[in-house]
DNA sequence: CGTTGAATG
DNA sequence: CATTGAACG
């Protein structure tokens, strides 16, 4: 029973706001409480973080803000915010004066990206210039002094690969986008790219050749994206850690205790235009920070231009 | 990310079953743990309970079974089970050898009724004899030696009264049903009848005259049902407690702390054919038992036929 | 397994 | 405010 009954609630005082507490002992369901493992960025380096939060609202209940406070990146790129409008008071304008939100118009509570930056970009762009395929808030591009930043949540090919076709068309649009940007400046292409490139990039390659994220189609498409026409693009984490296996995974499904068993996938990337590679001072997988999401944050140190070799 | 990835889970052992514990200190979100207030039934009386559980699965996590163990009624009528099929192992066949489930075929996880009985009925019937209006598992009728038991979850008129019309047609069918049954034996008509009959039956009559459950249409229809053609039907609780107000409420909406503020409705009833009234030994509102549902159990003591006056 | 929004009460 | 099932991942 009930339905309306708004009349019952008319002149009642608002209930006390519930305080959601995180457990003192870290479980796998919240982010850490102790971030002493985070070291200061190397001198002359900017810190850029990419993180698929699998719902920003939910992540906030699991320690997202405390993580950001501890990590304190110069630029923070988020995917799967599932936000329907900008969350204006999530992170202070003082810490991050430049905030960019791209929310899905096609489907509510779905997909969505955001970027928080301490550095003011010269330009911002939502979606593609020449394609309307991004109606789900998956792409934000910022132009900085010495590079373009492309932060993206690549469409999943879907159960039984029902959206593989759309995914392939997305990849085409992205390659065109990167080519266009590289005419002016090198690019940092980051985010949840929703592909495990090689067998080394997931725990169970053999059983996943027809699973979304590890089809030949998606892997081949990513190889193609890494080629580029003027110069190659470099998968920075793999470049620096050619043999990393389990330590490379950035995603652990919630089902079947994948995290505990290290049954993961490497789906999140920093891909840089070759000319930028010399400025890459490190890529760090924050896989201690599982708990707010089924993904973990990934971090790039980029040497400032004057400091580069 | 994720989608399929069933392949990841292939040969993994099942995760340890989670144990849901109820807090030691009773809150308003679980039923009591101490049932010492439940007294034994008067000698020569059967105990019949009606309870809208607002999802039996959910109620089970909030102490429903412990309540039934303590209350131990002879007949237990449930409404809003939201079960899609009989829950075979809910209550033992030893305690309740006769179990009757009526599940909604029209909408999954919606409505639904059940009866558990220690006494074997002569006959059981699901829905109406002459109408197909009950496609949502709202009605079970059992014939016992000396009476018919009609246990019902009456359709809500809906927000903005969008289903008021359907509700009126339901009431018509119910009156025909009762008339037919009374040709052979008197009737106990119980359940969530989804109406507060009089102003005394809800906390805020003034603001609810166009709310589902307190429209003139529904109230008038209930009056009509109480008339009967051969003999009247008696609202047993009101008959025995003519002045009860807050103590009569059987429903407290979840919103706006209605329970704490005693902002309730009397929506659950035992209506008996006049010839049965002399056997009614008591009707008890178990409003200490809030917590599993937004309704509370209502209880009828019925004297055995030989013991009656 | 966990998140969302829609429907219902 | 609570519950459900559908969609998605």
Automatic annotation (TrEMBL), chains A, B:
List the residue(s) that the UniProt entry marks as the site Interaction with DNA substrate.
295
Q: Where is the active site?
A: 153, 192, 295
Q: Care to name a GO molecular-function term for this sequence? A: double-stranded DNA 3'-5' DNA exonuclease activity
| Cofactor(s) required, per the database record | Mg(2+); Mn(2+)
For Mg(2+), which residues are the binding ones? 52, 80, 192, 194, 294-295
What does the record give as EC number?
Answer: 3.1.-.-
The Swiss-Prot or TrEMBL record describes its family as follows: Belongs to the DNA repair enzymes AP/ExoA family.
Name of the protein this chain belongs to: DNA-(apurinic or apyrimidinic site) endonuclease
Where is the organism placed in the taxonomic lineage, from the top? Eukaryota, Fungi, Fungi incertae sedis, Zoopagomycota, Kickxellomycotina
């Amino acid at each position: 029973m009930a339905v309306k009954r708004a009349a019952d609630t008319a002149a009642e005082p608002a209930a006390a706001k519930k305080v959601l507490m995180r457990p003192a002992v870290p479980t796998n369901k919240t982010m850490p409480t102790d971030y002493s493992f985070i070291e200061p960025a190397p001198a002359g380096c900017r810190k850029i973080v990419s993180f698929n939060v699998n719902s920003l609202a939910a992540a906030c209940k699991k320690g997202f803000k405390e993580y950001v406070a501890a990590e304190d990146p110069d630029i923070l790129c988020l995917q799967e915010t599932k936000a329907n409008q900008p969350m204006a008071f999530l992170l202070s304008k003082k810490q991050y004066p430049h905030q960019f939100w791209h929310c899905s118009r096609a489907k509510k509570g779905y997909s969505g990206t955001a970027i928080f930056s301490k550095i003011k970009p010269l330009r911002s762009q939502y979606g593609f210039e020449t394609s309307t395929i991004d109606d789900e808030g998956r792409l934000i591009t910022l132009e900085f002094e010495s590079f373009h930043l492309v932060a993206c949540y690549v469409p999943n090919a879907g159960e039984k690969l029902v959206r593989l076709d759309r995914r392939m068309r997305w990849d085409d649009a992205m390659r065109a986008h990167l080519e266009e940007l590289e005419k002016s400046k090198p690019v940092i292409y980051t985010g949840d790219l929703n592909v495990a490139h090689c067998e080394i990039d997931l725990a169970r390659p053999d059983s996943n050749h027809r699973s979304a994220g590890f089809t030949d189609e998606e892997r081949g498409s990513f190889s193609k994206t890494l080629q580029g026409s003027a110069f190659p693009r470099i998968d920075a984490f793999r470049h620096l850690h050619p043999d990393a296996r389990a330590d490379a995974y950035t995603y652990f499904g919630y089902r079947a205790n994948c995290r505990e068993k290290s049954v993961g996938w490497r789906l999140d990337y920093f891909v840089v235009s070759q000319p930028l590679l010399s400025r890459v001072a490190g890529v760090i997988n924050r896989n201690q920070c599982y708990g707010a999401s089924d993904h973990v944050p990934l971090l790039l140190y980029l040497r400032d231009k004057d400091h580069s070799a």
